[in-house]
Every structure is written in structure tokens, then in C-alpha cells.
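Supplementary Methods S3. Input chains for the assembly prediction are listed below.
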Amino acid sequence: MARVVVDVMPKPEILDPQGQAALGALPRLGYTGVTEVRQGKHFELEVDDTVDDETLEKIAEGFLANPVIEQWTIRRIES
Amino acid sequence: MSARIGVITFPGTLDDGDAARAARYADAEAVPLWHADEDLKGVDAVVVPGGFSYGDYLRAGVIARYAPVMNSVIEAAHKGMPVLGICNGFQILCEAGLLPGAMVRNAGLHFLCRDQWLRVENNETAWTTRYEKGAEILIPMKNIDGCYVAEQATLDQLEAEERVVFRYVGGNPNGSRNDIAGIRSENGRVVGLMPHPEHAIDALTGPSDDGLGMFFSILAGALT
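Predicted C-alpha cells for the full assembly:
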């Protein structure tokens, strides 16, 4: 068994209105100096030994992320 | 014999009832199609209606894209069956790869619910032959993930090939690239748009009957 972390983020050129809204709120909360906020998704998968890296890539590219608008990273965290 | 228009219901679909009603208004037979059933029941065309299939979990349209019925729709579309995706249905067709691009959150982050003017940019698709090119139509729009995006090369290709079918007029409501409200597939058989033609088929219940043209268009195409 292993834990796999997939982080999905909007591509840099894609407008991220949710991140911008968070960025816009920070000064109102008294936090200055934050120059950018991007909002994405974080997935944690528990997988058995039959799930290889190629399969994980297919899961990320074909399902967890939409390659048109998002990029992703896959990390294995051995347990 | 009347044309048979299939209307898909997924868990969380909202507008299958109105889509079926619109088909009947155009004197077509509305055929209910179920998400878990691969059988398209011999329909002449398919409407993928709006709503929040699977609660929009993960991404709008992505879970529905893998429903059994969509395997059949994708296969049929590749053989030329006309498919109309409305709102969430448009998102599903993009996720399925039948149409390019994707929808993201509206630029203003608001859920927009209003009657929206659109310009018909292309009247040579299976769903728009009954409109004049350049006609302006008023139909309802209601979504939060309605901002159409695609890579610049894809946008350039869509414009060059006249694949933008509907464009917002009177101001861009949601940040969609090139004011795009709806697009078509290369062969013009698959069309997707964010606003809801099925809600504009009778002045008694909608802002106009401008949406009916899409259903009459498919009827004319299916019977010739």
C-alpha cells in the first residue's frame, strides 16, 4: 500500500477568479504583502501495489485533472 | 413519422423535463434516456440537458462523461448523430472531447440567472439551420461555471473555421474568451452552449420562443 498525492492547479494562463477573490480579501483582513493566490485541488489516494506510475498518470490526466485548463503533479508517499 | 429526440437524465440533471417539452413543441417525439443504460433507443438526435450532474463533484460534467449512456453518445456522435449539449450538457460534451475547450468559474464569481441576448454566428449546424445568420435571440442563462476557455491556438482555429455558433451580445457576462456562448464540432453535428434554449419556447413560460428554432432545426435535418 502507498499513499499517492495528486495536486491539481489551474494553468498559469487560465483565469482563476477564486484565487483572485482570496487575494482581494487578504488586505481587508489586515494581511499585506501577499502578491498572488492560486486555488487548486489536492487529492490523496490510497493505492495497492498493482497501481503503477503509468496508471496513476492516466488517472490524473484523464480524470482528476482536465488538461485543457489544469496541470498536475503526482507524488508517492510510501507508508 | 416524427423525429425521435433522446433526452438524457443523469443524477442531478434539472432540465430534462423542459428539454423533452421543447422537443414535443417542435412535434418531435421525446425519448427519455437513462445515464446507466447504454441503449440510445434508436433516436435520431440526443440532447444532453443542463443541471448539476453528480453535484458538479470533481469538475462540472466529468463524472457524467464516464456514464454508460455517454459511451453510446460519443460513439454515435462520431458517426454523425446530432448532439446538443446545454449548460451542464455543454460541459459534459467538452469533458467527453466532442467539443474543444472547457468551462471555468464565472469571472465575477456570481451565479448568473438572467435572460441573455445571443447572436447566431453560424446557421449551418444541425441545430441552427432555422435561424438567420446574425440573428439575435433572447434565451435564459443560469450557471456559475459558464466562462468558456481554451488555448489560444484552439480559439484561433474555432474562429478560422467558423465554429463559434453563439456569441454573447450586450456585454460579456462571465469572462468567456471571444464572448463565446456556444460552439460546434468540426462536422457541425455536435453543438454546445451555456444558455438554455429549452426554457425559451413559449412566451407564456419564457422570455421568448427563440429557443424553439434549435429543435425545429434538428427536426428538419432528421426528416430529410
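The interface with chain B takes residues 10, 14-15, 17-18, 21, 63-64, 66, 68-69 of chain A (CB under 8 Å). The two ends of chain A are 7 Å apart (CA to CA).
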